[in-house]
Structure formats: structure tokens, C-alpha cells
């Protein structure tokens, strides 16, 4: 989404996470943690969405490539953008997604890519993730320690998120963050009625918020967080951001649905957190 907002041309490579392509040697060379997204710019390799966006801001912010952290609207706007970016980055999206897969009775109307066969496959994948990661670690000695630690983390997460009470605690963390967002959006009256989250311009804070709201909607958690009058300003914001070109180019459509159905029929040995980046992370990698 950030790449589209900055009008940067790029080639994308969709990594088949359900077939564990992110643990093949070529990808572990790019990121030993086996996580997407990864950006390759000539000889530079940058993993992690946050680091990628910082790299884009530092190296591509002139002419037709607008800044996502505005430098010409005063320190108040800039600080507000940075603040909300940091606040939204605290959302435990991995826990939110995993918990949703393991507590599906709490979901209402899940959307692409979380159709029923995918949800079933991902729930089973989380159960077996630790074991599978240990097998992969033994086949990849250079990434062995990283993958073994990741296996422990995944097992702990599965154990925790299998308990509904713990998942509800994650939901409460998201509530607290969205309360602050709702309060900020409620201030946008009068000459600020057309503002996004922090400014008349679309910023990195909006990218963070748009992706979070997309994920909540995909999981079928809108009824918990904003629909039915719970947070009317967030609901209005989400309807507005869905019309934005960068959102349309980022959100999964019919082609992604077909790919998701196809991949869901394959043996599943990968978990939910990785799937997050497949759909919303802007996967930009080059395969030798």
C-alpha cells in the first residue's frame, strides 16, 4: 500500500506460504526468519514492513513520490503522524489473527482470504507449526537457531490463543487502541471534515490504520470493533479508505480468492501470521 501511495514502480513476487515457500533456501537467504514481506532494491535486502517503509521514506520522497510522514505541515502534524503510527504498530495483529482462527465461533461474516477451508487449514497449521518448523530448521543449518526459537514462540502462541479468555484479552488491547483512534477522528469537524487520521493528506498512520481495519474486516470482527454504531467514525473512515486506489490495489480480489482456494487444498504447514503479509504486506522480493 505504501509503494502504491508513493507511486513507486515495483515487481512483486507472491510467496506461496501455504506450501512453505518462505522456508525454501532461496528465501531464507533473503530473510533467515522466513517471514514476508522483503524488499530487494538492487543489492540491498530489507525485511519487515516497518523497516521497508522507513527505507522508502528515506530514499524515495521527492517529485512524484510523496512523503508518508509530512515534513511541510508543521511539527504538530508530524508528531501526530508518528504517534499514531507507533500506537497502531502496538496492535498484536499476529495474535489477533491466530486467535480468530482458534476461536471461530466469535467471528461473523469472514471475508477473503479467510474463507471456511482456509480457516480450517490455518487452525490446523497453528497446531502443528512448532513441529514443522523444527523439521525445517534441521534442513537449514544456517537458519537453524532462528527457526528453533520461532518454533518455541509459535507453540507458546498456539497454547495461549487456544484459550478464549486469552483471545478476549487481545481483543481488549485492540479496543483500547481503537478508542484512541475514534477519539481522534471525532475531532475532525468543520474545516477538518475531509481529513484522514492526522492530516488532510494520507500518511503512514493511515496506511497502518487501513491495513488493520482491512484485517479486522477480513477476519469477521467488525461487529466487535465498529459496526452497529460501536465506533461510527472508524466505520465511516473505513468506508472512505476502501475507495482509495492504493487500498483497492492492495485488498485481495477475485483472483486472490481463486489462488487462496487452490492453495488451501495443498498440505498446510504454515501458520497464520505469515498469511497476514501475503495479503496486506506488499510482498516485494526478487527470486534468483
UniProtKB/TrEMBL annotation:
**GO BP annotation list:** mitochondrial fission; mitochondrial fusion; protein targeting to mitochondrion
| UniProt keyword terms in alphabetical order | Membrane, Transmembrane, Transmembrane helix
User: From which source organism is this entry?
Assistant: Tenebrio molitor (Yellow mealworm beetle)
Which family does the entry's similarity section mention?
Belongs to the GST superfamily.
* Cellular component terms per the entry's GO annotation: mitochondrial outer membrane
InterPro entries for the chain: Glutathione-S-Trfase_C_sf, Glutathione_S-Trfase_N, Thioredoxin-like_sf
Record's protein name: GST N-terminal domain-containing protein
Classification via PROSITE patterns: GST_NTER
Report the residue ranges that make up the GST N-terminal domain in this protein: 1-64
Q: Where are the transmembrane segments?
A: 262-286
Q: From which domain of life does this come? A: Eukaryota
Concerning PANTHER family, the annotation shows: GDAP1, ISOFORM A (PTHR44188:SF1)
**Keyword Flavoprotein on this protein?**
no
Amino acid at each position: 500500500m505504501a509503494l502504491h501511495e508513493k507511486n513507486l514502480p515495483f515487481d512483486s513476487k507472491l510467496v506461496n506460504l501455504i506450501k512453505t515457500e518462505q522456508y525454501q533456501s532461496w528465501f531464507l537467504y533473503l530473510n533467515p526468519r522466513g517471514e514476508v514481506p522483503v524488499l530487494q532494491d538492487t543489492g540491498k535486502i530489507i525485511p519487515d514492513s516497518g523497516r521497508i517503509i522507513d527505507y522508502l521514506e528515506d530514499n524515495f520522497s521527492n517529485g512524484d513520490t510523496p512523503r508518508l510522514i509530512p515534513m511541510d505541515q508543521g511539527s504538530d502534524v508530524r508528531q501526530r503522524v508518528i504517534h499514531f503510527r507507533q500506537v497502531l504498530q502496538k496492535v498484536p495483529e499476529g495474535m489477533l489473527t491466530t486467535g480468530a482462527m482458534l476461536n471461530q465461533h466469535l467471528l461473523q461474516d469472514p471475508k477473503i482470504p479467510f474463507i471456511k477451508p482456509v480457516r480450517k487449514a490455518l487452525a490446523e497449521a497453528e497446531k502443528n507449526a512448532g513441529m514443522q518448523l523444527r523439521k525445517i530448521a534441521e534442513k537449514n543449518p544456517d537458519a537453524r537457531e532462528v527457526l528453533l526459537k520461532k518454533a518455541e514462540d509459535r507453540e507458546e502462541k498456539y497454547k495461549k490463543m487456544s484459550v478464549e479468555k486469552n483471545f478476549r484479552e487481545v481483543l481488549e488491547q485492540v479496543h483500547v487502541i481503537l478508542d484512541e483512534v475514534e477519539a481522534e477522528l471525532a475531532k475532525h469537524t468543520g474545516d477538518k471534515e475531509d481529513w484522514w487520521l492526522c492530516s488532510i493528506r494520507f500518511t503512514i498512520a493511515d496506511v497502518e490504520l487501513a491495513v488493520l481495519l482491512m484485517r479486522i474486516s477480513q477476519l469477521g470482527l467488525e461487529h466487535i470493533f465498529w459496526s452497529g454504531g460501536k465506533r461510527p467514525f472508524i466505520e465511516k473512515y473505513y468506508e472512505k479508505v476502501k475507495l482509495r486506489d492504493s487500498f483497492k490495489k492492495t485488498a485481495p480480489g477475485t483472483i486472490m480468492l481463486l489462488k487462496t482456494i487452490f492453495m488451501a487444498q495443498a498440505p498446510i504447514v504454515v501458520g497464520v501470521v505469515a498469511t497476514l503479509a501475503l495479503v496486506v504486506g506488499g510482498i516485494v522480493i526478487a527470486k534468483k
